[in-house]
Amino acid sequence: MFKPAKVIFDEKSLEYPLGKRLFSYFNEEDTEVIVNKGGRFIGKKAESPIQSFISGKSSLVVGVRKITEFQSCKPSANYQLPLISGCSGMCEYCYLNTQLGKRPYTKIYVNVDEILEKALNYINERKPKTTTFEGAATSDPIPTEEYTGAMKTAIEFFGSNEYSYFRFVTKFSNVDSLIGAKHNGRTTIRFSLNTDRIIREFERGTDPFIKRIEAAKKLYNDGYKIGFIIAPVFIYENWMEEYENLIKKIGEEFRDIDKKIEIEVISHRYTERAKNQILSVYPESKLPMDKENRTLKYGQFGYTKYVYDKEELERMKIFFKDKASKYIKNCIIKYII
Ligand code: SF4
């Protein structure tokens, strides 16, 4: 669970029951509490990039979400569900590194019901087609779940609507509050996994591999659909052996299952902008971003990214396809990219 050092409340959030509850809670904790118009994060001047990053990562903003159109979320879902943005984890390759500015604070919204009302409009517009919402497009939603209960509320909301599905991904294991939620099989929770070596080296502040697997088991046993995202995959000495062990471990832990398990595999890629941002806050980073065995590729929105060479990617695809179908019963490989 995220323990912020500073919490900033948008004064409007205090008009909502959740805002009031969180305000009392944090005032009783050893936490700096600030209330202002708009929940503005005012940083200190003359901070280094590292100081700004750390102060952002240790802060929580409690706000009221303006109800505007949701962003699309292709290909895994129809829409992003904007309940949270940011994350207290400090993964060096976090996809949010270039999205949240110099002070990447976590922001939660107190008007969860209004956001879900908007989701309902989309569901009704698309009927009789089903509509899928992604709850982790701009966050890892689990570190703040105990404060807001937002995921549980969303799970039950979509669980009660036969025209909708919900999905999100996490690197955290604190899922006990989701056990027993009335999901009706309409939520898929995926766990992002990597080898122990990669988690230790690059995924600071997240939960260890084994805890994520244990959390996935609890959810599976509670009837949820679950999946694993193996990402980002790196090619390094012994990568095959270590990723094979990872897949074997999933297979062993989910030996006696009858439901399908989704597997997604994403190879490491980076943009020049992300590289600069990462090195500004992790100057000693050992992330492999040296263009060796990489190809420059044009992304969906016109930007360029460095991906592994075609031959390497092909090798990776064959490897993961082979090992996942060998070790994991009932697995569906959604994609390997
Ligand atoms: Fe980013 Fe996910 Fe790591 Fe959080 S857990 S820092 S969202 S990659």
Automatic annotation (TrEMBL):
Q: Which domain of life is it from?
A: Bacteria
Output the Pfam families linked to this UniProt entry. SPL
GO molecular function terms attached to this record: lyase activity
Protein's UniProt keywords contain Lyase: yes
What keywords does the record list, in alphabetical order? Lyase
Enzyme class, spelled out:
lyase
Known EC number: 4.1.99.14
Which InterPro entries does the record associate with it? rSAM, rSAM_sf, SPL, SPL_Clostridia, SPL_firmicutes
Q: What is this protein called?
A: Spore photoproduct lyase
Protein source organism: Clostridium sardiniense
Q: What is the lineage of its organism?
A: Bacteria, Bacillati, Bacillota, Clostridia, Eubacteriales
